[in-house]
Fold Histidine phosphatase family protein.
Amino acid sequence: MIRIASLLLVLLLNPLVSFVAPANATEAGWALLREGGHVVLLRHAYAAGTTDAPRIDLDDCRTQRGLSDRGKQQARRLGSLIAARAQPVVEVYTSRYCRTRETADLAFGSSLVTDLPALDPTGDQAAQEAAKNEILSLVEGFTRSGNLVFVTHDDVIRSLTGSGAREGEAVIVRRSPEGLHIAARIIFN
C-alpha cells in the first residue's frame, strides 16, 4: 500500500514540476522587461503550414507561410501583455517576411516597426555572418530605458544565441564576448 501511495505521489508531482520551470523562466523574463533597457528576440507567432514556397517573393505574401488565425490572436495577446507588464517597447525591428511583419504590426503597432533585412533567414554563411554582426551592432548601441524587440525566425535566433525558440516565444538577451547570452524567456501560450 505504501508503494502505491508513493508511486501516486510521484506521478502527481511530476506534471507539476514540468509546469513550474517554464513559469519561473517566464516570470524572470517579465522581471527583466519591467526594468527596461533590454533586448528581446521574438520568434514570429504561429504560422500556417510547415514550409514556404520554393521561390519566396518578399513582396508577395502568397509565396510565404502566413500567420494562422491562432497566430494573429497570439500576436495581439503578446503585444497586450508586454504593454501591460513591461517598460514600453521603444523600437521594433522585423524580418521582411510577411509572418514576422504581421506579428510585429499586430503586437506593437506599425508605427514602431522597421524592416531589417539582417533578420531574414539566409542559407548563405557569409550573408548570415554579416547579418549577425549588424544585429549585434544594434544590440550594443541600444541604451534607451524602454525595450528593443527584434521579430524574426527560429534559425536567426539560433544563429545569434545557439538556442532556438518556439513560435511566439520571447528570448531576452544580453551582449557577451561570445555574442548574445540568453538571460530569460517568456513563453506565450
Residues 18 and 74 are 22 Å apart (CA to CA). Strands lie at 39-43, 89-94, 113-115, 147-152, 170-176, 179-186. Residues 36-186 form a domain with the Rossmann fold fold (CATH 3.40.50.1240). The longest strand covers residues 179-186.
